[in-house]
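Me: Here is a favour to ask of a fellow structure person. Could you put it straight underneath, so I can go through it closely?

Assistant:
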Amino acid sequence: MKIKEFKPYFTTDFSDEIIARVYQEERTGVSELSLRAVHAQSYSRERIEIDGWEYNKHSQAEKLATINSFDLIKDGYDLVVWISPKSDIYEEGRLNIMLSNDGGETLDPWGVPLLLDEDESMDLAKRLMKEGGVSMDPIYDEEALRRQPLGFRLKKDENWLEKVRELMPEMDEVWVEIGKGGVDKKMKEIVGLVKKAKEKAHGNNILFEMEMRQMGYRLNIAGGHGGSWLSALADRGIFSFRINKMGDEESGFVRYAVRKSEREKAVVLSVG
């Protein structure tokens, strides 16, 4: 019997809001991008040197992209668009929009799944650069793109949503949903579901994920993408898993393989 290993999200360690953002961004089984757009937590410049940047092979590129985002805003660019392409470890890409807050000391980020392959992501970046996007360093391939967000200046009194609708009209459903407050409203709904699942799971991460699945929220196997800074939790991310029932249907005996860290061996938990 082959059991697929996964890393459990520690539901007792993180707030309802953080877990809800994971479910909003990494949800699978829905086709509307607007349902998976996320208004991520504000991110301050001082966190760059505090956060762990050793979660996967893209972590240093994502750290540099974060630094470059702050530097672009410092240089007077009001809107930063960061494309983090799909890769062998990210099933999807991410399009991230960063806005200045607190005089440029804090980023106000929005994230959207980018359902493009690596070449298509590069094509999007080239198009945005033709529309005035500026990067800190040259972009010559998809990994350089991952390091190099694009900065845009807004006209006086121009709303950032107007600008992104002009730059990327193909994602109009997302911009409309953000504009009418739908993304933030959906976030509050998911927080409510997370609270309900936590109450039933009593700290058991496996049961928590099962409760969320029953309410229609399943997760992308490559969850915790760095575009929204959730990848700082990637070593504890929620991952899809295979359920292996043993015995008859009435027994409800389920076996899971769980690994807490890269240094620990897999342990098998049984839930009856």
User: Anything to note?
Assistant: Helices lie at 16-26, 59-74, 118-130, 142-147, 160-167, 172-179, 182-201, 205-214. The mean pLDDT is 78.
